[in-house]
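Hi F.,

I've been meaning to write this up properly since the lab meeting, where we talked about keeping a consistent format for the predictions we share between groups. The idea is simple: the sequence comes first, exactly as it goes in, then the structure tokens exactly as they come out, then a line or two of notes. No screenshots and no reformatting. I'm using this chain as the first example so we have something concrete to point to.
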Amino acid sequence: MVSGREPPSRGLVLVVRVVLVLTTLAVVHGTRRNKKTSIYDHVGGCWPGEVSYRLGEDIICYSLTPKLPFALALAACRNISGRLATIHSQEHNDVLYKMLNESAFIGAVARKHMVSHPLGDFGPGIIWSWMNGEAPVFTNVLQTETEGFFKQPDGGGFEGCMELMKHPVLENDPGNGFWGDTDCRAPKPALCARMGHVKRPLSKYPEKQWQFELRKDRRAACATGFSRVGVTWAGESHSRSTCLSERQDAGDFTEATRRCQEMNPTATVARPSRLAGRRRWVPSLSAGEVGLQWAGADRRNALFQWQWQVDGSRVPPSAWAAGEPRDGPGEDCAAYDPARRGMVATDCQNKLEFICETAAHGCASGFHVSATGLECVRDDWKDCDGSEEYVDTPNKKACTAKLCPLGCPSGYHQLGHKCLLVNDTASWFKENSNGCRKQMMRVMIPKDPTENEFLRRQTQRTGRPLWMVYSKATGFSRWHQYDSYGLPGEPNEPTTLPRRPVKISLTCPIIWFDGEAMDVDCFGEFPVVCQRLIKWKDCAEAVEKLKATL
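Output, unedited:
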């Protein structure tokens, strides 16, 4: 008998072979997975088929949607936690252009009114803006006189959206690689941008213990560099109390606005007024137009209407001199002519002297300080009822109210019953919102035209939009006007802010350079204004403290 190992059964052989095959597949799969992971790391987390682009320390992944109308393209980008593309340079533009076989939507919209914009450009009667709120530091709109092609954007028909143009057949088409406005309803591909690797700056907010400043003199106070006076505004019959600066050296209208804001963020160019029956202004031969002064009004807004710079309200017809305002090209700012005793329209680039104006502290929105500086008087006397000790008590229709003897701490700015802190550091919403909370404040909620105008002026000063929060009472539609400009479905994101850490697919509101709001990616980088309310309870407690010291 020959001894030896018995041959394995056929079933056992089959099991061993299956195990070997599965092991080999696992190793191969692991190798591929590791290789795929290394590729992902190399391109910053982009998926296969996406094109990566490094922007600073961020990696952005780009892809194309199927042919869709603009509103559906927005939704398609959101489904992959992305947004429509924003283009930052010619190199960036060339990279995205190579992805196209035909024209595609980008993340910009066209408006049908010229709007004062610190960094942008505009075509004939049109201004465009990025939907994520970034300032357009690079523009590539089509500027050509070729027959059949027009300067873009031209706003024809329903052309409220912007596209990166590429002719599907003609390689030498004059529009290839440029931007133009297009019909929002036309199905087109869209360039989607998704964040692969993101690094955001962190704002530094020192934690402070909040404490209002107690004023023993209950008269309305003015900021440093301003004096409280009683005046009667041009076009009005009743007098009010306000704060005026000394006369400032000549400058154009934009420079005048900037210099007033440097004195105090709530300050504007002063409206023309009478002061105690005397001539407050002495004409200067140094001005570009002899005798004129800036009047604190312009029509560089979305509606192209003459508005006071201080609160965005309409300029009354009685404030103008006879035959004014003129409708000439470039005459978009108002000046006061003492000889004609009225306002005139003039070029915003003229060099004129001016006075800065800011409101006296102490009264809530809807009220102004009386000429004596001792009480708050309701702006609109219609349906008002009696007097109240302080504003925002149960009698909210009071005609007059006492001044609150509290002021904002040093370094903060007071606008009515709000203390404001302007932070110019651009960061994503959650970081800036947390920074406001560290200061025992919150992101500003504009609830009236004066507060909305304050935010708009800050965007002009910083050259960037500002984070904001919608008022629950008025919501988004109070500010947003895109519906009449051809862009459908705005706001196109939820307006409620998430309590949990925000995702890139959710959006937060910003206020744009013309005072309108729009919803953008919460991971955008913008400055913020923090606010804290002075409540009626705070005022009452302050009075008790004052009484105890008497």
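Notes:
Residues 222-358 form a domain with the Mannose-Binding Protein A; Chain A fold (CATH 3.10.100.10).
The longest strand covers residues 239-251.

If this format works for you, I'll send the rest the same way.

G.
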